[in-house]
Amino acid sequence: MNNNTNKPTKSKQQHNFWTHLAISLTIVGGMLATNFSSKAAESFSVEVIGNGKPVLMIPGLMSDARVWRPTAEALAGQYQLHLISIAGFAGKPAIQGELLPTVKQQLLQYIDQQQLQQPAVIGHSLGAFMAFNLASTAPDKIGTVIAVDGLPYLAPVFTRTNDTTVAMMQGQAGYLRMQYQQMTSEQLKAMTAQGLLIQATSATHQQQVLDMAAASVPKAAGQAIYELLTTDLRPKVHNITSKVLLIGASGAMANEADRRAATTLYQQQIASIANATLEFNHQARHFIMLDQPDWLTARIASALKD
Known about the structure:
Layout lengths: L9 H4 L3 H11 L3 E2 L11 E6 L3 E6 L10 H7 L3 E8 L13 H14 L6 E5 L1 H12 L7 E4 L7 H4 L6 H16 L3 H9 L2 H4 L3 H12 L3 H12 L14 E6 L6 H14 L6 E6 L6 H4 L1 H13 L1
Helix pairs in contact: 3-14, 7-11, 8-10
């Protein structure tokens, strides 16, 4: 395995991977579709490019469709890509109340109203969680699932064990939501800046991640974090009947022990899915589509064809 983490100093290499990933996942998931009412789509907007078999592409926390556009453009000759941007993230207006349950419900409505036949779902981070959520809730409506560095349950990233339960995390989740509700946009930007080293390798891509976070609504980010920490999909993912590819990023991991621990944790979360595969990219950091775009596009294209 490749141990090149592109860290600036040896001391930086020793930073604990799990601490960084917790920061990453906590502070960070063509034309407009014309037949979907604005009321029904209040929790997200859609950009559609390409022609062919439908594919939904969902970004992560405080990201929007821009992270997926280059990948979508590479696939547009064979697929119809529906690029999702979630309310409250990267300059999109926020909604009141629950966020992720509303997104799930309205995405399923979108699939029905657009008459999409078992679309594949590709999600990054929070978007990967949404992909697992859609496929376990409505397995007959969802095709191939490609989850990019995201899990059915986030909390074990903090605790380093899949024994973690929602009950254990309830207090911490509530505290984080309250903290984000009181945060200004500048404070959100400053907090995001602390974790940029594990988001992406290049300064340009790190700035892209920071700009999207700076344009996000802190309250929306806090609500999403609360819901990620208090929603455990592991008891439901056995319902998934389609093929699942989970891709992890280990480029920010300091050593082989961290890579083994992450592999075990990720594998355990998808163990009950009948047709699931786990693969890691050992050079890319959390935003794999920014760090290793050609590699990721090739893996996605292969998974969609299989």
